[in-house]
C-alpha cells in the first residue's frame, strides 16, 4: 500500500483554462465586452488628467475622448483613446498577468494625494479579457505618455501565446482592435453597438464618439452641486432619462460622502392608482458606468416606483460588475435613502402645505406603502401623511383625531374613523353619516386596505370602519340607545315579511331602532369580510371566500314610516309588495341587484309613478 507523505506547495493556475471560463461564465451577457473596454479607455483618459494635475505630465492633454469604430468589411471593432498608454513592460505586467488590475495599482500608488480612487472605474483587471467573448483575435497598439517611450503592438488569438513587437504610432494612447469571431457577428451591426454604448456609457465622464457623433453626457447633473442647478436642469435631465415620460412632481438630490459615497437624483413621478405599468426604473451606476436597473436591495420596496439615478463606488458588485453583492454598505445606503426621502417630504409639507396637498393624490401611494412596510419611515411620515375626506379636505393623523373626537368617540373611548371606497356607490351611507355630523374619509387606492390595517396597529384607540359595514349606531356605538316606535309583536311581524321576500339563505334580518330620517332598510357586510376581500383584490389573489355567497345583514329601521306602514297593514299582498320594493332598493344601493332582478325592480318602480 502506497504511503502518504506530508508536504506543502502552491496551487498552479493554468492560463489555458482561464479563457473558456471568461468566455462562458464570467459575464452573463456578452455585450458587456464593450462596456469593459470602453471603461478601460475612460480610465486611461482619467489617469492622464490626474497625472497632469499632479504635475507628473507636462505635455498637452489635447481633446480627451474615446472613439469606437466599426469596420464591417474587416470584421473589426476598434476602441481608441488618447490616454495614458502603455510601455512594453506595462503590457507584460497588466495584460499578460491575467487579473492584475492596473487601476488598483494606480489607486494604491497615488492614494496619498487624496483623490487617487476618484474617477477610476476598473478594479478587477479582468475587463480586457472580456474581449475574447466576441473576438477570435485581439490586437493592442499603444504608446505610453512617458518621454521617449516607443509604441508597442501586442497580439493574442485567445491561446496562451502572445506576440509583442515595435510599431509606429505618432500619438500617445491605446487602440484595442477586436477581430470578431464568426459566432459573434451580431456585434458587427451599427445599431447594436450604438445601443450597447448608450445603455452602458450614456454618462461616462469622458466623451465617447461613435460614427462621428458623441453619444454620451459626460457631466450628468448628479455629478454637480444642487446649488448650481435650476428646476429646468432637473426637468431636462428627467427627459434625458425618460424621453416620453410626463414631468415629475419633484425630486431629491442625493449627495453623501460618509460613511459611504453616494450621489444621484430620485424623481417622484405622477402615478396612476396602481402599481402596474411602471416601466421606468431607478438606474444604478458605479462611477458613471451603468450597472443595472434592478435595485431592490439598495432602494426600499416602497420607493421602487421612483425614477432616477443612483451612483456609488461603494456598492459591492460581483467580479463582472453585473449585479450587487449583499454587504453592510447596502443596508446603510438603503437606510440613508429612506431617511433622505422622508426628510424631503417633511420639508415640502412644512414649507408649502397647499402645494403638498395638491400633490398628495399622486404621492400618497409612496407614503402609504412606506408606512406599511418600514417602521423608520413611519416615524417621520406620521407627521406628513394626509387623510382626505369626502369634502376634499386634508388632515394629518393628529389633526384628524381632533377633528372627529367630539362626534365619533364611541362608548369605549375609541375614535371611529369612517371611510368610503366608492363615493358614488356608497353615497346613501355617506349621506346618512353626514346627517349625524360624522366625517367620512376617502380610501379608494389599491393600497388602502393594507394601509388601514397598519393604522389600526400603529395608532392607539382608533377603529377604522367602512361606512356601509353596519348601521351607524353599531359603527359608532354610544351609551344612549334609541327606543323603537314598534311593539315587539310588530317588529316580529315585519321581520317575517322580509324573511319571506328576501329569498336569500345568507341574509340575516334584524329590526333596529334608528332615527326616523334614516333609510328604512340597510344592507351591510361585516367589516372584516369587506377588508379581506379588498386586500386580496389589491394583491391579485382569489377571494378567501371563493364562490361562497357572502353573508350580509338586513337591518330594518323600526322607526321609519314605511316600516311602520308594513306593520300596520292587514293585507299580506300589500306588505310583501312594499317590503320587496324596499328590500330591492337596499340591494341596489350595495350593487347586489342585477340582471332580471334589476329589470323587474325598474318595472315595478315605473308602474308606481
TrEMBL record:
<dbReference type="InterPro" id="IPR020575">
    <property type="entry name" value="Hsp90_N"/>
</dbReference>
<dbReference type="Pfam" id="PF13589">
    <property type="entry name" value="HATPase_c_3"/>
</dbReference>
<dbReference type="InterPro" id="IPR020568">
    <property type="entry name" value="Ribosomal_Su5_D2-typ_SF"/>
</dbReference>
<dbReference type="InterPro" id="IPR019805">
    <property type="entry name" value="Heat_shock_protein_90_CS"/>
</dbReference>
<keyword id="KW-0067">ATP-binding</keyword>
<feature type="domain" description="Histidine kinase/HSP90-like ATPase">
    <location>
        <begin position="29"/>
        <end position="170"/>
    </location>
</feature>
<dbReference type="InterPro" id="IPR036890">
    <property type="entry name" value="HATPase_C_sf"/>
</dbReference>
<dbReference type="InterPro" id="IPR001404">
    <property type="entry name" value="Hsp90_fam"/>
</dbReference>
<protein>
    <submittedName>
        <fullName>Chaperone protein htpG</fullName>
    </submittedName>
</protein>
<dbReference type="InterPro" id="IPR003594">
    <property type="entry name" value="HATPase_dom"/>
</dbReference>
<keyword id="KW-0547">Nucleotide-binding</keyword>
<keyword id="KW-0143">Chaperone</keyword>
<comment type="similarity">
    <text>Belongs to the heat shock protein 90 family.</text>
</comment>
<dbReference type="InterPro" id="IPR037196">
    <property type="entry name" value="HSP90_C"/>
</dbReference>
<dbReference type="Pfam" id="PF00183">
    <property type="entry name" value="HSP90"/>
</dbReference>
